[in-house]
Fold each of these.
Amino acid sequence: MPMPSFLSLLRLCGRIPALLGVLTVAGCLSPEPFPTPRPPLPDHWTHVPPIDPARSNDPAASPRAIDPWWRTLGSPTLDTLESDLLAHHPDIASAAARLDQARIRARIAESPLFPSLSLDTSERLSQRGNSGTTRASSFSGPIVQATQASLSASYELDYRGRNRTLAQKAAYEAEAGRLERATLHWSLTADLASSYIKLLTLKTRRALARQSRETAGKILELVVRQVDLGHASPLDAVRQQNTVASIDAQLAAMELQHHQTLDALALLSGKPLAEVSRLEGSLDQLRLPLIQPGLPSTLLARRPDIRQAEATLQAAHADLQAARATLFPTIQLTGERGYSSAGLSSLISPGSAFWNLSASLVATLFDHGKTRGAIELAESERQAAVAAYQKAVLSALKDVEDNLAAVHWLAEQEKAQQRAESAAQESWRLAEARHQAGAVDFLTVLEAQRSLLQTQDERPQIRQARLNAAIGLFKALGGEIPDNAAPQPESLTPQASNPQASNP
């Protein structure tokens, strides 16, 4: 007897009841899409940086001209550190492993969309007992041998698209995993750049503080000699000693921050601490990039955390659809073809062949609210995902506005600080000259000195703040994060492989 094909099996089982054909057609329906609820977006940003005519033709000034974004700062040392981070950081390796797991789960979730095939072979020996005795261990009948080999195929009709929806959910979760890794890249690279800038800032501040310490020490020696000669008050010497001690305390605090920053860089880059301690670079050599933020709506496509929240939302919606589909019955089609005989030698003879066809319909009549509860839980999880997505969008808008404001006002602050430093330098020169002429007391010189030291220390800190604002703006705008492991999809609409094959 010839073995029927699987399509013949479907046709045969489709004739069993008329309802089966109706459910089969209904099973071809695709899961309904879920429109992403987008919060209202502004038409423009409040603080848009003006285009500097001197840099308008500079290709290195645009964040899109160089990929990745940190190269716009113009530091080869930072480029090397970022490459080491992406290659060796354990959190990125862990995220890559989680992404692989999500992709494997997506492949597993696609398996119910296709028929399953299994091979079963068995050999059984049996003997009947003697009917004339009550002893269970008394056997007098012949030993019967039965050998069977069969090939069976089974397939569940995807009524209401439940299996397809579960496959889509797994695909969205895999996409969310890819975007989680991109978000991690996005965050860690910004943290490393900020730590490197902090290291260079501390390097500059330490150099300025050491120069100030040397100058203050010389002034203290001069004041002590003048006290010994009776030309200065002991109070002047004590005040200068206070200035020297304050600079020493400031240097100690900087040394602590310097070592902590080196430890952070070593952890982020995966380099030994001794190698990180030899890093070269200067704060003044870093380039402030010119960043044009574009339109607010571009955040939805560029920021990986927003797209991750959207993928999570779509996965929650697919989970809700799958939960609703459990209200309807499941239909299982099974076909079996094989051979069965009393001896292995006659197993494949035509007389030993057999085949079976079956169809089963299973429906839950009462489960004490379990199915309804699962639907309500899935609906609640989708609402939470909607709120999380909207929060991600609003947080992104806030991040951009905050950093745009920081870029603008820190530039103004640096201009004012430069004027203040020039004035403090001139004040120190005049106070020292007038003190030597006997026109002012030494307290005036000390005040001018403290003012100059303070403004000199503020200069690299404001420069650090401006660079951090640029990094924050890159991060807020989504940054150019390389992702070599997977191509960038055009939209968040993952589909199962050959979804048409999931339904007849």
Note: The first helix runs from residue 6 to 14.
Amino acid sequence: MAGDSASATGATLTDLVRAARLISLALLIAVLCNGASVYMKRTGLLDREAYNNAWSVHCAPVDPDGAVVVAEPRCCANVTDAQTEMYESDAHIKLEEESLRYIFDSQGPEIGFKLVKDLFVVLLTAYCAFLVGKRIVPAPAIREAWPVFLLVGYVLISFLSSSYFNGPLFAIAGLRAFMFALLALLGLWLVPRLGDIARCVGALLVLQMPLIPWELFQGIHLHGHWLPYFLASRVSGTFVLPNSLGIFAVTALAFFYSFASNRSWVPWLCIAALAAIYYAGSGAGIICLGVLLFNMLYDRAPEKRRAHIVIGGILAGLLLVWLLPEISGREDVYGSVLEGGRLGHLVLFVAEHDRVQLLFGSGLGAGKGATLGLMNLVSPEAIDAAWLDAVQFTDSTITGLMTEIGLLGAVMFYAALVWAGRRDPAARPFYWVVVLSSLVVNITAFFPVNFLLGLAWAHSIGCARRA
């Protein structure tokens, strides 16, 4: 009997190892599928007619007489100083925006590609719940993970409230962004196998590299062009926006550094992350990479030299902030954060909502990401109205959380981050990057970063259990 029990236990462990490897592969596929259609549209590999039309509209100031019927990429290389004024006219900007809208509209099979990540998260959560329900793997006690339990309970209450006031569809759309917290509670069995997932995340970062040159040369100039070569000024890879690529690159590097069983690939991944961040023109990515590199250096330095490293890090950080516009190639890089950017949106949000909404939020699904995503899936022709009427400025995690679950929910989220960081030294470099990134992107709605955060929280819960 004892032999049979040991055999069954061995078989279960083998099955779990195989399941973790399949999850790693599924994560890689889900991330690539999520942005594949946007990348292919942006570079002309998909929907070629609309791609050519976008270049023709872009090249109209080069040939005002309309002789250019189908323009080639980088046709703006022929632009003169006089024609530059036409590029900057309100009429031409509006015309270009209309010609580029097809890139972000998901229709037909493209919707299926977008839903792969949701299917992945739902199936994984269901599988973890099955393992916990059958007592094949353990679940944490409340005392071991009370901040995460508190956040999950509060989100469920907000879900029920939002279902009543906003409708079940918007509530379900908003709930997707908080599945990572549930995964943290159900995914303790993945903690010993985070090394496999870290390798997958590193591979995802490396896979962005061969996509960058093609996008530079063939990609539509969504964010202007890069002089003097008239290439795309910023790239996005398999992500929707350049800043998303930059944030993913540094969080992927931080996750690999924190959880990989073998760090021999860290120097090569640093190069890949630096390339992705530079070509994405991500100011936040540059700052986060600097902080991460400081953490790596501090972590490996002898105790007697750490004071010097701190002083050097502060001076290097001040220099980096000062030179950020030149390094990122964006003179207005601070504008995306200050009065006209995330901070301005947060101030506007606070000014336009009453105290009850500020404290408890407007319910799940009230944020920009969920609203636009749902409108695009249910009624693509109504997306313009969604842009004008239903958009909330949720470009940062703080504003996004306050929009949906209020100040109370935002405090719970950041309290859980602090709790996890205090108990899990190995994961602190990753948490530092997440906290800084949360100032410029809504981490809870950013796949796969939110998924990685759920796994990191599971690791921290495991540390609390061992303690």
Note: Confidence is low (pLDDT under 50) at residues 1-8, 374-394.
Amino acid sequence: MPVRPLAMALVVLGGALVISALLLQNTDKVPALSVTTLDGQSIALADRQGRPLVVHFWSTTCVPCIVKIPDLVAFYHRIPPHTIEFVAVAMPYDDPERVVTLQQQRELPYPIALDRDGALTAALGEVRFTPTTVLISPDGRIVNTWLGTVNFQALEQDLENLATAAAL
């Protein structure tokens, strides 16, 4: 697999030093994989049916992932319904019971899936760090990938650009 350009930044977040990395735009097509959420919904990566997909990889043991949950929830609520699909994917090493417990305790409104066999993390560039957020276009291309804390402004701008391109 080709190595992608990587830009890294050190950011101080709540007194903690966070390494944030942004993988530059990638036009690779995603494979024909589906992920099943905890509530049984199937989400296909490649078959977007006109809507972009945000895939957010996280872990119950990842402190930045847990700290940023309120921001992720706020982002999820800001996006107009039926304009995108969103799924948070727990890493293969996560204990499924902990994932379900955290979802219930935090009353997470977005779909959550388990990547028990690691197929999804492998398919989207060997995701090894959490959080990692991947934006997939309606035609199944990887538009952008963020390692570390996602830049929600950049993500929303990418979504706006996709909507504008679709309208043309």
Note: The chain has a mean pLDDT of 82.
